Amino acid sequence: MHTCPVFDWEAAWHAALYGPGGFFARGEKPSSHFRTSPLVGPELGVALVELLSRVDAALGFPPVVDFVDVGAGGGELAFAVRSLASGSLASRLRVTAVELGPPVELPGVRWTSAVPSCVGLLVGHEWLDAIPCPVVTGPSSDPWITRWWPSLADGEQAEVGAPRDAAWAAAVSSVRGAALAIDYGHLISSRRFSLTGYRDGRQVPPVFDGSCDITAHVAMDACAEAAGGDWVLVSQRDAMAALGLVGEAAGSGWDWLESAARAGRIAELRDPSGLGSFGWLLHGNGVAVSDLLPALPPWRPIPASFSAS
């Protein structure tokens, strides 16, 4: 009697993105395939420079302060932070882009393939959703599923988020300061199978031949618990407002046009039915989260009909 081999989803997913000829390994950048917050304009960078400034102050203004962009893609966010920092922060700032694909030459940005130890702020912007996971079909006795996806019904599929949990816990432990994951995802009360692909600005079936980006929603609550410590999970909409990005047109003439354009970009970043619904999972490591953000409403995922990226 012959049995069919079990399909290794995690290995196939990893090979499709990072193996020889994989989507990211061959140099594809997210900017060519979907719109993310760093591509809207400099405003996400402005918000993160403000957050980094608060981390810097909470750390007592160390001689070198780091900004680490994990899963940096084309380096847009890292370069924005490098360009927007000013004064004493700029003179002490070290910017590192972490990416498995080929680096992009950007002034003031160093590249590495592994998460470094750092003092400052580490950001994983749409990084966790690209970490491959096993996929199981219910019923499942997998311990992660038992803890974090208890509603999995017979015949339903689920992504096992344990590799994301481990990656995020390791990233948080590498930082003295703060670590921030910005991503789309779900909570234990709203789990749904979400594995999908993106190519040339369109959502496509997830094929494992290296022709598309493959992604799935992040179990943000599981990642938070895995990393532990002092943390909050809030929406991008609320976090950006707390960091001073609210966006209102003012002035006259060209000044009004520029402020109106900026207000439009901020509105897109804070749109509760789009990018504004992304979760911001912020961990303090040697820094109190309450020194970085005020008390904000807890994050709630967007309805299941929304397709991220």
Short key terms for the protein model shown above:
NDUFAF7, SAM-dependent methyltransferase, MidA family, Rossmann fold, 309 residues, alpha/beta, SAM-dependent_MTases_sf, disordered C terminus, transferase, 14 strands
Tell me about this structure.
The chain is an alpha/beta fold and 309 residues long. The chain has one domain: 3-Layer(aba) Sandwich (Rossmann fold). The protein is 31% helix and 21% strand. The protein is built from ten helices and 14 strands. The chain has helices spanning 9-18, 37-40, 43-58, 76-84, 87-92, 143-148, 162-173, 220-227, 236-242, 253-269; strands at 65-70, 93-98, 109-112, 118-125, 135-137, 157-159, 175-183, 185-186, 196-199, 202-204, 213-215, 218-219, 230-235, 279-285. The strands form four sheets. It has a seven-stranded mixed beta sheet, with helices on both faces. Strands 10-9-11 form a three-stranded antiparallel beta sheet. Strands 5-6 form a two-stranded antiparallel sheet. Helix 7 packs across helix 8. The longest helix has 17 residues, at 253-269. It is globular, with a radius of gyration of 19 Å. 44% of the residues are buried. Mean pLDDT is 90; it is low at 305-309. This is SAM-dependent methyltransferase, MidA family. Keywords: Methyltransferase, Transferase. It comes from Lentzea indica.
List the helices and strands and how they pair.
Blueprint: H1 9-18, H2 37-40, H3 43-58, E1 65-70, H4 76-84, H5 87-92, E2 93-98, E3 109-112, E4 118-125, E5 135-137, H6 143-148, E6 157-159, H7 162-173, E7 175-183, E8 185-186, E9 196-199, E10 202-204, E11 213-215, E12 218-219, H8 220-227, E13 230-235, H9 236-242, H10 253-269, E14 279-285
